[in-house]
Write a structure and sequence with these properties.
single chain; 136 residues; 33% helix
């Protein structure tokens, strides 16, 4: 194991979450989440709501995104770190399976990392662009 894979630095923990998500490795993704994690998808987003527990997050968010979208990827571009707060400016790309419509939309994610685990996540995204891709 290298230093990155064991680092508890907030930005490293968040980066491991994105890498696990991009690889479809939900087991690795769950290891970045605190047992009492609160994961909030923005109101208006297809999976809007707050999910708890690592299993709750992956089954209600990542697995559902995989069911509804081809190639769903969060491309993490810029990290802004302030103590336990990590804000990531990113992009979502995917193609909706039902409509065949693609998305390429900017997004901001706010993570709170404590003790080497993500304890809170909040998504900010242009939900209208995502919704438009899900309608005929």
């Amino acid at each position: 194991m290298d230093e990155f894979t064991t680092s508890t630095a907030p930005a490293d923990v968040v980066r491991r979450q994105y890498l696990a998500s991009a690889a479809g490795d939900l087991t690795a993704l769950r290891t970045t989440l605190a047992p009492d994690v609160e994961w909030t998808e923005m109101a208006g987003f297809p999976l809007a709501g707050t999910y708890r527990t690592p299993e709750g997050v992956t089954s209600n968010v990542m697995e559902k995104l995989g069911q509804d979208w081809d190639g769903w990827t969060a491309h993490d571009d810029t990290y802004v770190v302030d103590g336990e707060n990590v804000v990531v400016l990113a992009r979502y790309t995917a193609v909706n399976k039902a409509t065949g419509k693609p998305i390429d939309v900017r997004v901001a994610h706010h993570f709170v990392v404590r003790g080497g685990l993500i304890v809170r996540f909040e998504q900010f995204v242009d939900t209208a662009l995502v919704r438009d891709a899900t309608t005929g």
